[in-house]
Amino acid sequence: MANNRIVAFVDKTIVKITGIEVKGLKPQDVEAALTQFLGSPVRLIGVTGDSLQMDVYGIDPERILRDETGIIKTISAVPGLTAADVAAIVRNEKAREVSLEDLQHGSGLSCPKERWLARDAKESSNNSHR
What is the pTM of this model? Predict the structure, then answer.
């Protein structure tokens, strides 16, 4: 007998988008647009003046990034790009800019990052005593 296996996952993910203005939308049009965008069937289950709530079916778990409480933070809409990749890109965009002059301050034989962290900690300490 052949070793026939079927690997499948069934997923219904509930997504709630807030902070948007919702008015004059036809639910069928929104579902069609989101289905095309996400590449997965979408069904709207709730529409308020400032939020949309929907079921998304059959989405690959690697395309979803949830926080520790289960709140969805990211859904990757690009094939081959995982939600973790999207989160890494967002973190990189939030990196602080530091001028070369600021990095050159400090003493001792330490790397620029260590000098910056020491300087940043000193400034934070000074601000807390004010």
Answer: 0.56
